Amino acid sequence: MTGQSLRIVRVANFVAPASGGLRTALRELGKGFRAAGHEPVLVVPGDRHTDRDTEQGRVITLPGPMLPGTGGYRVLTDKRRVAAVLEYLAPDRLEVSDRTTLRWTGRWARRARVPSVMVSHETADGVLRTWGLPEGLSRRAADSLNVRTAHVYSKVVCTTEFAEREFVRIGARNVVRAPLGVDLIARHPALRSAALRARYARVDETLLVMCSRLSVEKRPGTALDALEALRRRGVPAVLVVAGDGPLKPRLEQRVRERGLPVTFLGHVSDSGLLGALQASADVCLAPGPAETFGLAALEAMACGTPVAVSATSALPEVIGSAGASAADHGDAFAEAVAGLLERPDAERREAARARAECFGWGTAVEAFLAAHEASVLAAGDPVLPGGTA
Predict the structure, then answer these.
(1) Are 151 and 222 part of one and the same domain?
(2) Largest CA distance in the chain
(3) Which of 153, 187, 297, 374 would disulfide-bridge 118, Cβ 3.0–4.6 Å?
(4) What is the pLDDT of residue 297?
């Protein structure tokens, strides 16, 4: 571990004003790095060049084109400009959150003799499968990609054992584990609101909530399948969807055609409102099969709400026995929801909160700093995000 302040430059693609988990992770880790006495700098794509100081440290946006069909995601495509910014910033450490279009930064870091970290936010083979590739082909393509990734970066950071498996499979020896976290103060069961719940569900109805980007890899249609399956069983369930994305028009059309009780809120920028919605739900749904952590699910649990998750994702590892996992189809998710509803309300809410308390942001910050071989330098043992000293 180095005992000096480090400039930790972080580069990420696929970050948009309406994006969720990655944006949250970048913000909270940046705040933690800064509180620990280091100098975090974040470089992301935007519609124009900006350079500002924020609570998470310096944030630089570089012009990047919008990727068609992604609902607003931009990417850094000008390698020469990004490289020039990296040379200007002269990082002590480089952290990259995109193993595809930004993998070249690993070679830049090697030439510049800068220790580099690639953060694996989604499994490569899982994403390829959700886009329709056969399992064998997706695994071979993922292995090829991951071999190159592990070779060019000093370390690969995986947030769960699930995420680590695809690198263990190829024999990578530079993989380290660092969990993400949840703000245990901002997300709390006390946010539960009878008035907010009444806005979307009657007293005798079951309120389901899904907070997710509405894109192919998140499989949001499974939530509609689960709603239909529950209602066929006689469960008076309704669904509220918080999130936006390219699949939203298709999902809305399906809801209209089938007369489903679904409310689409779009992107909810008010984190307090989102937390109250999660806390007021009976069960939250996280159907994404390629998730390597699932921040939205963990936030719901911090609010005291159990989550039904995809069994093929990392989320069963994260939620433990406080939630329920299901195969990737509506009937299985309906069964998981029904099982959670059979538990006494107080019991299932206490279990959800207790599990979330295992994942404070302070623990995550310390793990990421360890991956960078960086010490906590700030005097007085400052409290890091999530309440961990």
Answers:
(1) no
(2) 63
(3) 153
(4) 95
8 A C-beta contact, residue 319 and residue 307: yes
Is the same domain home to 207 and 335? yes
CB-based contacts of 189: which residues, under 8 Å, 6+ apart?
Answer: 279, 303, 304, 349, 353
Q: Are residues 148 and 222 in the same domain?
A: no
Q: Which residues pair with 264 in a beta bridge?
A: 241
CA 374 to CA 35: how far, in whole Å? Answer: 13
Same domain, 228 and 303: yes
Q: CATH code at 17?
A: 3.40.50.2000
Strands (E), the chain: 7-12, 39-46, 50-54, 57-63, 93-97, 116-120, 155-158, 175-177, 206-211, 237-242, 262-266, 283-286, 307-310, 324-326
**Per-residue pLDDT tens over the stretch 345-367:** 999 999 999 999 999 999 999 99
CA dist., res. 104 & res. 327, Å (int): 36
Of 94, 19, 21, whose CA–CA distance to 372 is shortest?
Answer: 94
**307 DSSP assignment:** E
| Domain extent at residue 278 | 189-356
Q: How many domains does the chain have?
A: 2
Instruction: Name which of 47-51, 67-71, 142-146, 241-245 the model is least confident about.
Output: 67-71
Same domain membership, residue 60 and residue 106:
yes
Q: Cα–Cα distance between 316 and 320 in angstroms, integer?
A: 6
Rounded CA-CA distance 324/310 in Å is 9
